[in-house]
Design brief:
This protein has about 210 residues and is mainly alpha-helical. Helices cover about 65% and strands about 0% of the residues. The protein is built from twelve helices and no strands. The protein binds 2'-deoxyguanosine-5'-diphosphate (DGI) and fe (iii) ion (FE) (2 copies). One fe (iii) ion (FE) binds next to helix 6.
Length: about 210
Amino acid sequence: MKTLTPDRLRGKMKKTLSPDRYEHTLSVAYTAANLAAVHGEDVTKALTAGMLHDCAKCMSHKKQIALCEKYQVQLSGTEQAKNSPLLHAKAGSVLARENYGITDEDILHAISYHTTGRPHMSTLEKIVFIADYIEPERRRAKKAADDRQAKRLTQIRRMAFCDLDGTLCAILKDTLAYLQERGGSIDPMTRTAYDFYMAHEKETPRES
Ligand code: DGI
Ligand code: FE
Ligand code: FE
């Protein structure tokens, strides 16, 4: 299968996603492209990953599970739970490969880990994870229940263009605090990613 251009993917996402989710997707793709330009990453890869990061979001839970089973994707307990906010990342990565012809492993990993993060993320993975959190539509268009309502959004948006690891720490910290406040089950990968980047930040203090 031929790899589709971001332009073709945009048309496909418009057809498969809800209007709000499509707007969010465009915002993530363009935010990721800007972050890529600043941080020396491939802009087209960032656009592609951003365009596809939520491609499975509007599929039923049952179909997402079936897709992951078919391609033997390992799922954690939190990912398998009904109404899991995490499952679409793993299902989306499979869909990107099987339906949209993406073969670039870095793009596929960026989709897989855009919700939880993970230790040792590539620059592209960090960019997609961060773009998903800071995109300009986040506060406006998303349902309150699905929105972490980032307390430090202005600060985090500014930091994203100069310090990817510091931004990851801030987002993971606020996400864990939000989940703890709401009694949400924390996936081991979210916790591991947080511990990894906090330790990493302590080892490499930034100047000023
Ligand atoms: O798909 P989006 O809504 O654009 O955003 P997303 O994929 O980053 O995340 C959706 C939700 O997932 C968000 O409200 C935070 C939540 N989340 C992140 N890590 C965990 C988590 N939820 C649970 N239950 N456990 C986690 O470890
Ligand atoms: Fe998502
Ligand atoms: Fe998203």
